[in-house]
Amino acid sequence: MATFTLFYRVLGNMLKRRLRVLIVGGLALSLLLMILFFSHSKNSTVRSKSQHSTPGFFLFGTKEGKPHHQVLFLKVHRSGSSTVQNVLFRFAVRHDLAVWLPQGSKEHFSEDHLAWWESAGALPPPEHRYDIAFNHMVYNPTIVSLYMKPNISRVAILREPFYRFLSSFHYYRNSFRLEYLARIPGSVPIYTYLGNQQQWEHTNPMKSQTNNRMSLDFGLDANALRNETAIRALIDRLEIQFSLVMIMEMFDESMVLLKRTLRWQTRDILYTQRNSMHMPFQNAFSESQVENFAKNQIADYMLYRHFHALLVKKIEVIGQEFQEEVTIFKGQVKRLREWCLKATGHSLIFEATPWNERFEVKISECLMMALDERGMMSLLRHAQSNKTTHVGSLSDINLHEILQLTSRENEM
Length: 412
Hints:
This protein is mainly alpha-helical and 412 residues long. It is 56% helix and 6% strand. The strands form 2 sheets. The chain has a 4-stranded parallel β-sheet, with helices on both faces. It has a two-stranded antiparallel sheet with strand order 5-6.
C-alpha cells in the first residue's frame, strides 16, 4: 500500500510539472501568434497606405503592370486625330520606340485600300517589327501584323459624322483643295453639295473625304457602304480587335480612358489642340439637310453610334471617380496650355493627385506639341536616317532641331 501511495505521489508531481510546462508553452505559443498577427496587420496597413500615396493612379484608374509600348493608332481623317497623333509621337520619343513610318516623304500609309499595300508604295516587311504607328492608313490587320510587333494595342478615334463632314468639306475644299470639292459651284458650295450629294461626290469612294470616310479608313469595302450586314460584321470585328475607340465629342474622357487602357501616366496624355480650324455656317443647317446627309452616310453613322454607346457604357461602369479624374485632367491641360503660350521658365511642375504622381514638363515638350504632322515626320526620319536600320533610336532628337522645325513652320 505504501508503495502505491509513493507511486501516485511521484506520478502526481510529474503530471503537475508536465501541466505547468504545457501551460507555459501554450502561453508562449499564444504570445508568439499574437505578435505575428499584429506584425502582419501593421505591414498590411503600411502597404495599404503606400498604395494610396505612391502612386495613386495604380489604385484609381490605371491597372498595375508595365505600360503598353506597342500601339497602333488608326488616324481617322478630320476626327481630332492630329492631337492624338502628337501625343503618341511624344510618347514614342520619350520611350525611344521604333516608329513605323511611310516610305520616303509620304505622310500617309494608304489612301487606296488593299491595292496600295500590294503596290511598291509599302515598305517590305522589316527584319525587326515596329513598336508604334500613328499615320493615316486604311486599316488592314493582315498588313499591320507584318510590320508591327505582336500583341499590339489598337486604338482609334471617331467623330459625329455630320460635324466631321463639315470639317472635311472646308479643309479639303479650301486648304488641301481636292478637285471634286473645289469644282462645286454656288454662293454657298456646301449647300449645293448637300442638295445633291450623288451628283457632286467622287466616283471612287476611296478618293473621297466626304463619303463614309471613317468606315473606309476602318477597312470597309467601298462596295459595301449601304450593306448593313457587311457594316455590322465590320463593327463586330473592330470591337474585338481594338482596345479602345475614342470619341472626339468626349475627347478628355477618351484621353483618360486611353491612359487607363494603355497603363500610361497623366503626363503621357497631356495635349494642346492640333489642326483645328474655324468653320463658318456650322449651325446654319436645316433638319432636312442633316437627315438627307445621314441617308447617304449609313456606314459612318452605324460605326459612330455603336462605339459612342460603347464608350459611354465603359465610363458608366467605372463610376464617379472617373469623372473626378477627368475634371482634374481638364484643369491640368488648361494649365499646361496657358504655360506653353507664355513660355515662362524652363519647366512646369504638376503636383501629385489621386491619379498621378508629381511630374515635371519641360519647355521642349511645348515645342514638340507645336509640331504639325510634317514636322513630326521630319524629326523622326532624321533620327532614323542616322541609324543602320529603319528601326532607329529617337534619342538624338534635341531641342535645337525642334526649334529649327517650329521656326520653319512659322515661316510657311
